[in-house]
Amino acid sequence: MDLFRSEAMHLVQLIIPIESAHHTVSYIGDLGLIQFKDVRAHSSLIFCEILFLLGLLNADKSPFQRTYAAQIKKFGEMARKLRFFKEQMEKAGVTPLTKPMKQAEIDVDDLEVKLGELEAELVEMNTNNEKLQHSYNEHVEYKLVLNKAGEFFSSAFSRATAQQKEIESQQTGEESLDTPLLEEKEISIESSKQVKLGFITGLVLKEKSMLFERIIFRATRGNVYTRQAAVEEPVIDPVSGEKVDFGCISAEHFILVVTYVEKNVFVIFYSGEKAKTKILKICEAFGANRYSFTEDFGKQVQMISLSLVTLLPASFQVSGRLSELKTAIDAGLLRKSNLLQTIGDRFVQWSTLVRGEKSIYHTMKMLSLDVTRKCLVAEGWSPVFATNLIQDALQRAAFDSNSQVGTIFQVLHTSESPPTYFRTNKFTSAFQDIVDAYGVAKYQEANPGVYTIVTFPFLFAIMFGDWGHGICMLLAALVFIIREKKLSGQKLGDITEMTFGGRYVILMMAFFSIYTGLIYNEFFSVPFKLFAPSAYACRDLSCRDATTYGLIKERPTYPFGVDPVWHGSRSELPFLNSLKMKFSILIGVAQMNLGIILSYYNAMYFNNSLNIWFQFIPQMIFLNSLFGYLSLLIILKWCTGSQADLYHVMIYMFLSPTDELGENQLFHWQKTVQLVLLLSALVSVPWMLLPKPFLLKKQHQARQGESYMPLQSTEESLQLEVNHDSHGHEEFEFSEVFVHQMIHTIEFVLGAVSNTASYLRLWALNLAHSELSSVFYEKVLLLAWGYNNIIILVVGAIVFIFATVGVLLVMETLSAFLHALRLHWVEFQNKFYEGDGYKFSPFSFASVNDEYE
Q1: SS (H, E, C) 281-343
Q2: Alpha-carbon distance 336 to 330, whole Å?
Q3: Tens-place pLDDT, residues 305-340
Q4: Most exposed: 220, 237, 672, 710, by fewest CB within 10 Å?
């Protein structure tokens, strides 16, 4: 069937031998034309009870107790390992091969073992690398502590030595026979009372260093001495580890961004164990890393003495260790990179296999075992045209699995509504998605997507009409279409992917924008004499303002579109506004009539005569008695050149229908025609409201009286049940039916007025687009051109380009798109489209891979 109605569907049942179940589901997944049902959820209550008593269903089992739960768990674990590999490859910047080399078929059990070994090896590599990196970062900080603390002790030792020498020289110069001996005794006593100070060295975050020092000072009541020195280069904290972010250069490359922190080296001198305990707790609270620095004065002197001679050779040993660790880390990363490259060569193949197998067993879990536990029973929807293809796939599956018994394929008959399936291509799929965003069509309901292919871009173009802007849109759409093979295989951003998916919609919108732009004769708001010279010319030289009062018609009417002489004249806005406003009404009434006509085709297809006589006919009469008549008056006024006031005609058609029209009369018998149309519109309202509920009640009573009747053939009963009106499947409540019909009538009557007025947005949006384009051209580009300065001209051109692209080609495009969307969803589709169906979602490996991506 074509795109106008969804494909004919039927419910099929497959009885699959256990030995060929895997091959059968796999081949059906390759075909992608069966939507499997979970028999437990979709069977009727009585049928489920019977099957449960017979042991055909496993409804009492939890998902982990059902058949194939172990296989699903196994492949879920394999998928987790593959996700782990993918994360590791992204961190290492390794890109899996999109088209792996053809290799031998992989056994699933062997792949499970291999993935486990690779995961264990990668985990071990990561653990070793983390340990080495932690040790390396610690040694880097330890080296910084040695350098900074060594510099501090070195300077302190130098000052102490100088002071000692100064004291000794003073004592030697001043010593005499008169020097009292008691002073030496006091010195010896004071030296014996000296207190030994301890110290702690380490690093703390620079941003916390002042708070750190202040809290230590308060906690010890000032009985400490703290020295800090800033580290010149940021370091990686060994405790928190490497803080890694991944920046994406392109879809194929990743860069490693390591977050470094700035720290200060501190040395804290204290006295007593209590003070030491407090300092250690504060260091732990602030995340300060402590490193040992020898407290042996002799070793310190030795280290400091060496430091005075050379450039801190005390850190040479640490530097050697750092070099060893760096070599080990590089070797580990190289080995890991090689392993990940090996995994990347087969990653796509492994992922496809695991995803496919997992989806196969998920589907098999939906099937039920028969009483003999030798067959699986499956039910699902499939298109009628696919019957032969499915049977061929079942035969191949039975042959390849060496099954002695083939799969039994049979069609079931049910009253359940089938899913909706439209066969679309890359051109029509985007337009169908626009319709499906409102609601999926009911089974074999008239599909508005057929008309949306033309009407949607046309309504957009009425609001966007400018053939210069249309050419820009056309170029953008052609870029996506020409590169669609390359772009379809890449990961795009959300906005880019959405734009790429609607490339053919943009193409159609561009074509129609060029067409309406030629009608409006606007190229970036500038008119051109493309098809012929203007039909008008100036009467004399005083006509330079190009007003219509100073123009005379010298040539035939401009053959296509608006005559360019109207642009720039004083009567441009009145003329173009009148034209576009009336044109919008004509388009709106035509599209609403199309929607009502489609409701007639729906009623005919579903054999619903009530909707034809009491919905389609009165709706056509009401709409066209008022707004169809208005459209006729507009066309007559254009053809005759009459000066009749259509506002006055329509208003007094209701207020004073019997008054004479006078100068507003456009044709003979107009007053009589208006009276007939007004009466028809008034009669059509109760026509829609009253008869249908009573007739539905009568039909319901007739069905109740026909409880016993001859059995129909299964095909006829299926068609009648599917095509039956929804009221026949429910308990009939006359009050509810009547209220529903009253709401529907009021909605249509009021909607006919509001929907027609809503189409005036076509005129309003086009007016805004045209005026904005004119402002950018005249107040930016022409203004810059008038200065005769190359710099001002370049700046003006740049501003004009950015304003045109940003406002007119992006914001105005989005605005016109949304308004066209609203006109289709509300004003057009509510006349006939129910949209309460559900989409056909077959089991397909292609869709499984798309969901994974």
Answers
A1: HHHHHCCCEEECCCCCHHHHHHHHHHHHHCCCHHHHHHHHHHHHHHHHHHHHHHHHHHHHHHH
A2: 10
A3: 444 444 344 456 777 888 888 888 889 889 999 999
A4: 710
Residue 615 has pLDDT above 90, yes or no: yes
Question: How far is Cα 474 from Cα 453, in angstroms, rounded to an integer?
Answer: 17
Q: DSSP characters for 148-202?
A: HHHHHHHHHHHHHHHHHHHHHHHHHHH--TTS-THHHHHHHHHHHTPPPPEEEEE
The dihedrals phi and psi of 659, each to the nearest 5 degrees, come to -70, 155
Report whether 358 contacts 76 (CB < 8 A): yes
Distances (CA, A) of 453 to 435, 505, 508, 519, 680: 10, 8, 8, 21, 34
Strand partners, 254: 248
Locate all alpha helices (DSSP H) within 661-760, ordered by sequence: 670-689, 691-705, 714-723, 734-758
Q: Count how many residues are written for the chain.
A: 853
Distance of CA 329 to the CA centre of its chain: 40
DSSP state of 467: H
**By C-alpha distance, which of 725, 723, 738, 735 is closest to 699?**
725
User: What is the pTM (predicted TM-score) of this model?
Assistant: 0.78
Helix, strand, coil percentages (3-state) for the chain, rounded to 5, are: 65, 10, 25
Closest CA to 577 of 818, 772, 770: 770
CB-based contact 745:614 (threshold 8 Å) = no
User: pLDDT (tens digit, 9 = 90+) per residue, 356-409?
Assistant: 999 999 999 888 887 677 889 999 999 999 999 999 999 999 999 998 888 999
Segment 116-174, tens digit of pLDDT = 999 999 999 999 988 888 888 888 888 888 888 777 877 777 787 888 888 877 766 55
